[in-house]
Design a protein that fits this description.
Number of strands of chain B: 6
Order of helices and strands of chain B: HHEHHEEEEEHHHHHHH
Strand order of the largest sheet of chain B: 1-2-6-5
Protein name (chain B): Substrate import-associated zinc metallohydrolase lipoprotein
Mean pLDDT of chain B: 87
Shape of chain B: globular
Pfam families (chain A): DUF4302
CATH topology of the largest domain in chain B: Collagenase (Catalytic Domain)
Oligomer: heterodimer
Structural class of chain B: alpha/beta
Largest sheet of chain B: 4 strands, mixed
CATH superfamily of the largest domain in chain A: Pilot protein MxiM
CATH architecture of the largest domain in chain B: 3-Layer(aba) Sandwich
Mean pLDDT of chain A: 92
Radius of gyration of chain B: 26 Å
Largest interface: A-B, 50 and 51 residues
Distance between the termini of chain A: 79 Å
Largest sheet of chain A: 9 strands, antiparallel
InterPro entries (chain A): DUF4302 (IPR025396)
Organism (chain A): Flavihumibacter petaseus NBRC 106054
Distance between the termini of chain B: 92 Å
CATH topology of the largest domain in chain A: Lipocalin
Pfam family, one (chain B): Peptidase_Mx1
Strand content of chain B: 5-15%
Low-confidence stretches of chain A: none
Strand order of the largest sheet of chain A: 4-3-2-1-9-8-7-6-5
Structural class of chain A: alpha+beta
Radius of gyration of chain A: 29 Å
Chain lengths: 434, 295
């Protein structure tokens, strides 16, 4: 019995060796080389190049145009800003076999502007930028399109064959003109308005995530509408149209920036309109200052601002982020009481010290004065700590700005985020989050 | 006993079975393995320039095109260098670092001791604590240079005086790492380690000023004797002798000042005895080259 069993086993071993023919007619290296060659062939095969769209990891839609040649060169446009939309940049690319066939943009170009880990390049956080890849796995090759996936952030990139008209729109400056819209960031006032069909609209624009918040007054009440936007070869397109009664706004076009007046002429539904700065909100949110203050005070918590004040067109005008070990600016309502039993609010710089975060630089304020017209004024009490010399200038300017007699408007920008805007001229503001 | 025999039989049969499984080689021609022998692309002017000025002369491979594997920390997101920056950066490296050493130590010195790979990146490499890395050396063979898209020297478009800090920082990194290469080859006198002692991994608890009061040229010099030695070299070469004298004058502690002078003297002796290099003359040339690029 045992002998039969072992014979069977032996027979089994032999039969296991009778392999089927390889399912592939070629070796893996040969097949990889063929795949890479077919992708390169596809990339260079479109003489007018490729249209591409990227949604950043931080949520903004950007358009690109690529032209690849057979010498590892790529020619690129991007609607990142006016310069990248108007000047074609040449850089390099290569195809490489990693775990999968990979397309990499292997020297710096416009696509790297979005992913650049230096936040000041693109408005993102240091270390991550807008979270956009420049190394892509080639997933699928169709006749007129190629689907790719980023290897670090998983950015989705879809290349679609361009026709000559697409290329012309970039090369003839049509996109560059459309990107003139971004000049509105040079308007010094926080509040930016235009009028259309008898209604004044106020806009808050976040260029990093490419979203716009609209305010307007209808039937005596303040209306709010938020939408993403993107650019195309006609102008700026609102992802969702703004609907106000009989008026529907789907986008803006025909931009013309006036650098002397800091105004932007444009067309809305074929009618002329102008975006200009304003020194006060369209309708002041009267309760906002108190809501902001109480939200933190009632929770025994505080508001933070990573970047400090924007003043006269300059982000971080007081260079608070350059203070050694600076972590964020803090406002802590009802932090404590003085010896005279006065409730004290704290404004300070939190720094990163050995062993953790520390609030070693702080000024005190008496309880704020909420005015009936929707402003808040902070009565300065005293500087409560020693201020190291390297932080002195940044801190003095910050608490002096905070102490301005005209006070501040508040604009709620999210569930737990507010912008605090100087009531004097609306040219200074600071963003608070919790 | 019988069962043991069966076992033998099975084993033999098994071996025979395995050997009979030798398949046809389907891996194809080994010459066609993709990427074997390194990445390839169509050479352009930058490649030609690097080949002529670095590969041919020094047997150094300057890598400027992105390759994730060159970045040892795979969790970091760093972007590649802009091609337009490569020749200006590598020209500055030649003028400020390579040429002064050649002039002092002879033409073959850098051919022998330069790292075999210089790897260029466009952005800094950010660390999770908010700080960032500008340079890194791995053993003697590889040096990584970051943030080169922000490298601006005098005469380049957009140069501002503040950019001189970036230039100096880059050469500080290079001279620091090259100092390690030198002492890996010929060790500095052991007495150097005992001039101050007091090395600590918590060096960053001290500012540069505090470190100098204790006889270290920078806070990072407190990290260990090797770093102390090469920090001394890097500061002396990049900042120059008159900076060193002026810095000494700001030190309140007589002991700290004396120890720094002892360390500087020992660096000079080491360059003379180990490498037959006149350190002061090397310093003058390096500093003059830095000034030419920044002022």
């Amino acid at each position: 019995m045992k002998r039969i069993l072992s014979l069977l086993l032996i027979a089994g071993l032999f039969s296991a060796c009778q392999k089927d023919e390889s399912p592939f007619d070629k070796g893996p290296d040969e097949r990889i080389n063929e795949t890479l060659a077919s992708y390169e062939q596809a990339l260079v095969s479109s003489p007018a190049g490729w249209n591409a769209t990227i949604i950043t990891g931080t949520g903004g839609l950007f358009n690109f145009h690529f032209r690849f040649n057979a010498s590892n060169r790529v020619f690129m446009f991007s609607d990142f800003n006016q310069e990248t939309a108007g000047t074609e940049k040449e850089s390099s690319y290569r195809l490489k076999s990693l775990q999968q066939p990979v397309l990499m943009f292997d020297t710096y170009s416009y696509i790297h502007l979005l992913g650049d880990p230096t936040g000041s390049v693109n408005g993102g956080q240091n270390g991550e930028g807008l979270k956009v890849d420049f190394e892509y796995s080639l997933d699928t090759l169709y006749a007129d399109s190629i689907i790719l996936t980023g290897r670090f952030y998983g950015t989705r990139l879809k290349l679609i064959k361009s026709d000559q008209a697409d290329l012309d729109a970039w090369q003839n400056g049509i996109w560059e003109n459309n990107l003139a819209f971004l000049n509105i960031s040079e308007i010094l006032e926080y509040f930016k308005r235009f009028s259309h069909a008898g209604v004044t609209y106020e806009m808050l624009i976040d260029e990093t995530s490419r979203t716009i918040l609209f305010h307007w007054v209808s039937g005596g009440t303040l209306r709010t509408f938020v939408t993403s936007y993107y650019f195309d070869n006609t102008g700026l397109v609102l992802q969702e149209p703004l609907v106000n009664g009989n008026t529907t706004i789907t986008g803006f076009d025909h931009f013309d920036w006036n650098d002397n007046n800091k105004t932007l002429d444009m067309q809305v539904n074929g009618q002329d309109a102008t975006i200009a700065g304003a020194t006060a909100p369209l309708r002041t949110d009267l309760g906002a200052p108190r809501r902001w203050w109480e939200a933190a005070a009632n929770a025994g918590s505080y508001w933070i601002s990573p970047t400090g004040f924007h003043v006269n067109g300059v982000d971080d005008a007081y260079h608070v982020t350059e203070v050694p070990n600076y972590y964020f600016t803090i406002f802590w309502p009802a932090y404590g009481r003085t010896q005279d039993n006065v409730v004290v609010d704290i404004l300070g710089f939190v720094t990163q010290e050995i062993g953790g975060l520390a609030l070693n630089i702080a000024a005190g304020y008496r309880p704020p004065n909420f005015t009936s017209d929707g402003r808040v004024v902070f009565p300065f009490l005293d500087v409560l700590t020693d201020v190291p010399p390297e932080a002195k200038d940044a801190f003095e300017k910050t608490y002096q700005k905070f102490s301005e007699a005209e006070g501040f408007y508040f604009v709620q920008t999210g569930a737990s985020s507010y912008d605090m805007v100087a009531a004097s001229d609306a040219r200074s503001w600071i963003s608070w989050v919790r | 006993m019988k069962s043991v025999q069966y076992l033998f039989l099975l084993l033999i049969a098994g071996l025979a079975g395995l050997s009979s499984c030798k398949k046809d080689n389907v891996s194809g021609n080994a010459d066609d393995i993709p990427g074997l022998g390194g990445d390839e692309w169509v050479n352009g002017p930058v490649d030609d320039w690097l080949f002529t000025n670095y590969t041919q002369v020094y047997n150094v491979d300057v890598k400027y095109k992105w390759s994730q594997t060159e970045l040892s920390e795979l969790n970091k997101f760093v972007v590649p260098v802009d091609e337009a920056q490569v020749i200006p950066v590598m020209t500055a490296i030649k003028d400020i670092w390579v040429t002064p050493y050649e002039q002092e130590a002879g033409g073959n010195f850098m051919k022998q001791y330069m790292p075999r790979f210089i790897i260029l990146f466009g952005s800094p490499s950010y660390n999770s604590d908010g700080s960032f890395t500008l340079g890194q050396a791995e053993g003697e063979g590889r040096i990584l240079l970051f943030d080169l898209n922000n490298f601006r020297s005098k005469g380049m478009p957009g140069y501002e005086p503040v950019d001189s800090l970036t230039v100096k920082e880059m050469f500080h990194t290079i001279e620091h790492e090259f100092g390690h290469t030198l002492h890996f080859n010929i060790m500095y006198p052991v007495e150097f380690k005992t001039i101050t002692g007091g090395y600590t991994s918590n060096w960053n608890n001290n500012t540069n000023a505090q470190a100098r009061e204790q006889g270290f040229i920078s806070n990072y010099a407190m990290n260990g004797p090797d770093d102390d030695f090469v920090e001394t070299i890097a500061f002396l070469l990049v900042e120059g002798q008159s900076w060193f004298q002026a810095m000494l004058a700001t030190i309140e502690s007589d002991e700290g000042r004396t120890k720094l002078q002892q360390k500087a003297a020992m660096v000079e002796d080491y360059y003379h005895n180990a490498w037959n290099i006149n350190f002061r003359s090397l310093q003058t040339r390096t500093r003059a080259a830095i000034i030419a690029y920044t002022k």
